[in-house]
Inverse folding.
């Protein structure tokens, strides 16, 4: 919901940080791998009930994830493979973290299972739309590898809610129920957008 507003604000900061870490041994691929590794470590820490280490690892993993693209563009090495690996790492970390929280909290796993289903459906709407929109020649609108459709649940909100799982583990189940509703609404928004735009003849501009 707020990604479109945050991206211009954060872009310059991320570019400066990318310049600061621009060393021969720091590559976009290694930043992607670091984000994945730290995200999985955060998931394991959550499963063990180590909420503060989980929070720190989660936030640092998302910082690494935010830097691989700016560094690749700074070096002129951005590639389709890099974008593919970045998306795979993101989806892996998001799902693993929810599973870790489900194990770590003292309560039923049902809300987290429902949340994972909504993640699955929402991810399917995003990836299916991106693939088909690319094939029919839709413009992406920014420098990212996929056609990202806006909605209530985007990257910034996901990072914040997962952080709240660590800060308020006693309420994690309630948070998961509420977040699952928001993610489901987002999936519905994306389906509605796809129905509206992909039903048009290819080559016509989207509304």
């Amino acid at each position: 919901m707020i990604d479109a507003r945050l991206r211009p604000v954060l872009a310059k900061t991320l570019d400066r940080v990318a310049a600061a870490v621009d060393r021969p041994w720091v590559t976009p691929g290694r930043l992607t791998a670091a984000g994945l590794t730290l995200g999985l470590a955060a998931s394991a820490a959550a499963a063990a009930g180590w909420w503060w280490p989980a929070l720190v690892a989660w936030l640092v993993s998302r910082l690494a994830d935010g830097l691989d693209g700016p560094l690749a563009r700074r070096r002129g090495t951005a590639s389709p493979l890099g974008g593919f690996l970045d998306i795979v790492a993101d989806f892996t970390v998001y799902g693993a973290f929810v599973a870790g929280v489900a194990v770590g909290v003292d309560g039923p796993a049902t809300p987290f299972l429902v949340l994972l289903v909504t993640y699955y459906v929402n991810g399917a709407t995003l990836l299916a739309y991106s693939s088909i929109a690319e094939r029919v020649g839709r413009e992406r609108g920014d420098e990212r590898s996929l056609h990202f459709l806006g909605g209530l649940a985007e990257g910034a909100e996901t990072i914040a809610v997962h952080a709240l799982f660590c800060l308020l583990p006693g309420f994690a189940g309630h948070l998961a129920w509420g977040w699952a509703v928001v993610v489901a609404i987002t999936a519905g928004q994306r389906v509605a957008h796809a129905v509206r735009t992909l039903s048009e003849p290819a080559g016509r501009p989207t509304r």
